[in-house]
Design a protein that fits this description.
Layout lengths: L1 H15 L8 E3 L6 H9 L4 E5 L10 E4 L5 H22 L8 H11 L32 H4 L5
Parallel strand pairs: 1-2, 2-3
């Protein structure tokens, strides 16, 4: 009983604390966020969603065709949406709140260049795979069909 009460509070306290429902809901993965999509449809909140081939585009009010599994695709689409919202709010004189530090840190970590795949050994330099000698097999002999000429 306490576990169920805890789950309800954890999942629904954010909704209870809202003064009014949101003007729109942005969903990246409609399959994973099925509950949010159902709640938004029930409350008649417009849904802007990235719709992949495995989703039903009719569930989204404003479907955006794209790959909801690729992080680069998600970054590109959310970046454009963020810029559009910021421009619209600047035009109307509203201020967009800055994202929390945790989101800023996650975005910075995700956009940082990837670490090298192999770190040098403290005992000496590592041999890179591209410079190692690899034996190359001799070319295969041509097939009989390739060597025959067609008769006139």
């Amino acid at each position: 009983m306490r576990r169920e009460q805890y789950k309800l509070h954890r999942n629904l306290d954010g909704i209870v604390m809202m003064d009014q429902p949101p003007s729109a809901v942005f969903v990246v993965d409609m399959i994973r966020e099925e509950i949010a999509v159902r709640e938004a449809r029930r409350l008649k909140i417009p849904i802007v969603a990235i719709v992949d081939t495995n989703c039903d585009p009719d569930l989204a009010t404003y479907p955006i065709p794209g790959n909801d599994d690729a992080i680069r695709s998600i970054r590109c689409i959310t970046g454009v949406i963020t810029e559009s919202i910021a421009e619209a709010q600047a035009a109307t004189g509203q201020q967009i709140p800055p994202p929390p530090e945790t989101i800023q840190a996650a975005v910075a970590a995700a956009s940082a260049p990837a670490a090298p795949a192999e770190t040098p050994s403290p005992t000496g330099p590592a041999v890179e795979p591209s410079t190692a000698e690899v034996p190359v097999p001799p070319p295969a002999s041509p097939t009989p069909a390739a060597t025959t000429e067609s008769a006139p």
